Amino acid sequence: MLNRKYPFKWPVIWLGVAAVMVLPAWGRMAAVVGVQKKSDGVILTMQSGTLRLQVWSDRIIRVTYTPGTQLPTTKSLSVIGKPAQTMWSLPQTSDVVVLKTESLQVRVDRNTGAVGFYDSNSHPILQEEADGREVPLTPGGTGVQQLFILAPDEGIYGLGQHQGGVWNYRGTTVHLQQQNMEVAVPVLVSSKGDGVLWDNPAITDVDVGESNKGILSWTSETGGAVDYYFMFGPTADGVIQDYRALTGAAPMMGRWVWGFWQCKEHYASQEELTNVVAGYRRLGVPLDGIIQDWQYWTNGTWGSHEFDRKRYPHPEEMIRALRAMHAHVMISVWPKFDLGTANFNELKRAGALYAPTLHGFVPNELDKYYDPFNPVGRLIYWQQISNDLFKLGIDAWWLDASEPELSGHWGQFRQFQTARGNGSQARLHPHAFRLRRATAKRRHHLVG
Questions:
Q1: What is the pLDDT of residues 285-331, one digit of tens each?
Q2: Contact 24, 67 (CB under 8 A)
Q3: What is the C-alpha separation between 14 and 391, in angstroms, rounded?
């Protein structure tokens, strides 16, 4: 048994001089006992579970494993692509089941159920560890894990943006949890020319040979199945192309977005904001945009999306003046609402607010966050900022607090009940919150 790094402990019961380990209720890999060819791939029945290989292209294979007989039907929050028409075959021997495309051979060991990926010349690319999957047998169980074998000279990159100053994550563990200054993206790229998209938005640890130098493990706090996409570039650029095929192509932004943007913690008045842009123009320093960060509202009205008219007496005129100086405007908008505001009350009537009342960053402030998993809530949220801000001529949105920030205690979202289920039981962690909140803007006009 491998020395694995789990986010929980196994209880031990001592009987006399012998210790008996009580194992968690997990489904383990086992021998393949049945093979069923489908139009888009193959389903393999295991002694204690079900494994599916789904062909998305000649370079992309989806691997799903569940300890039961029913594969999950939960719609992905990140994969929006569709499997492409692909030529493939399914040769079999007494030892191995092979799914072959023009670029890949995907082999399943009949004895262990482990999946291995090879190029068309049978050179190994990525190999699952035998007995390397862990999935809870009961709904709400904890700990979904998949282990892969690391090649001795393999480098691992990607996984978002982190503050550790590490480029190649070999020998480290990366904690994928959205926080302030921490961007969690469950996608890695290998120096061998392949990539893995781990399709589980739960808080996840990626151990890249830290606990065992020859093993890479993905361990998510919750989930009902192992579910990942193997992408064979065979270059880093090709992996990014595969990733775009799965999650959608990022739109090309306007030329003005690529210029210099001026921002500070926040500007406190209409006069200050316009004077800064005027100063750049007077000095002849190029400037394409300016960002109005938080606290442009009146104290106690967070989420009203309304300017404090004492400090910003004419916001529409202000934006026209900035436009006349050839500057674009981005503004910070939040998913939180102070109690008693008109926008708060509208969302409350729609049942689109999370139940907990939180203490905000301003003294004596009480607020709630809206639920972006609620489609009615998303529509109301857009209508509110459209009516209050977009009509003024705002060019782009700064989606602030999308971790979500809540009270600033990272991981607090686990206890929240959303329209899609409990924050931990229904695979709804900060990565998912961020995606659904962006959806409220993406489907309506301009996204910043």
A1: 999 999 999 999 999 999 999 999 999 999 999 999 999 999 999 99
A2: no
A3: 69
Query: Any bridge partners for residue 222, and if so which?
Result: 142
Residue 284's contacts (CB-CB under 8 Å, 6 or more residues apart) are: none
Identity of the amino acid at 35: V
Alpha-carbon distances, residue 96 vs 15, 65, 112, 113, 228 (angstroms)? 42, 17, 10, 9, 21
> Whole-angstrom Cα distance, residue 44 to residue 32?
6
Residue 313, Cα to own-chain centre: how many angstroms? 40
Q: What is the pLDDT of residues 220-245, one digit of tens each?
A: 988 889 999 999 999 999 999 999 99
Report CA Rg, the chain: 25
- 214, 150 contact by CB (below 8 A): yes
Residue type, position 393, single letter: G
CA distance 266 to 103: 52
Residue 141: per-residue pLDDT: 59
pLDDT for residue 337 is more than 50: yes
Q: Which two tokens stand for residue 84?
A: 């492409």
Question: Which of 337, 439, 428, 420 is closest to 374 using CA atoms?
Answer: 420
The partner residues of 66 in beta bridges, in order of sequence, read 50
Please give the Cα distance from 277 to 288 (Å, whole number): 10
Asked whether the beta carbons of 328 and 260 are under 8 A apart, the reply is: no
Give the confidence band of 263 by pLDDT, cuts at 50, 70, 90.
very high
Q: How buried is residue 184: exposed, middle or buried, by Cβ count under 10 Å (0-12/13-18/19+)?
A: buried
Q: Alpha-carbon distance 162 to 184, whole Å?
A: 8
Question: pLDDT tens digit string along 353-399?
Answer: 998 888 877 777 888 999 988 999 999 999 999 999 999 999 998 88
Joined together, the tokens standing for residue 98 give: 């092979």
Q: Tell me how far apart the alpha carbons of residues 175 and 151 are, in angstroms, rounded to a whole number.
A: 22
Q: Are 112 and 44 in contact (CB under 8 A)?
A: no
CB 215 within 8 A of CB 145: no
Length of the chain: 448
Q: How many CB atoms lie within 10 A of CB 73?
A: 6
- Separation of alpha carbons 47 and 116, rounded Å: 19
Q: Return all residues near 344 (Cβ < 8 A) that are at least 6 apart.
A: 303, 337, 338, 353, 367, 368
Domain residues of the chain, as ranges?
31-247, 255-442
Q: Which CATH class is domain 31-247?
A: mainly beta
Question: Could you give the 3-state DSSP secondary structure of residue 46?
Answer: strand
Which overall architecture, per CATH, does domain 255-442 show?
A: Alpha-Beta Barrel (3.20)
